[in-house]
Amino acid sequence: MDLLIWIVFGALVGWVASMVMGSGGGLVWDIVVGIVGAVIGGFIMNMLGQNGVGGFNLYSFVVALIGACVLIAIVRAVRT
Q1: Contact 42, 59 (CB under 8 A)
Q2: Domain range annotation of the chain
Q3: Using CA atoms, how far apart are residues 49 and 75, in angstroms rounded to an integer?
Q4: How far apart are CA 54 and CA 10, in angstroms?
Q5: What is the pTM of this model?
Q6: For 21-37, b where at least 16 C-beta lie within 10 A, e where not — what string?
């Protein structure tokens, strides 16, 4: 069940990040961006001395969203 929750969470975060950053992908892209973004966001927040992603709540959503936006920006920079 946890895997399903992470996939739904990743899809939601990835979709919002794609909307914020103006990029398009698809369902699989949004899931990957959301899950990897949660890892990146957690790493960034740990570097700042804060908690990373801790569950399915608003704080974790914002942390994952920040990480997903960073990931999209990195992908854009590498592609160009």
Answers
A1: no
A2: 2-79
A3: 26
A4: 14
A5: 0.87
A6: bebeeeeebbbbbbbbb
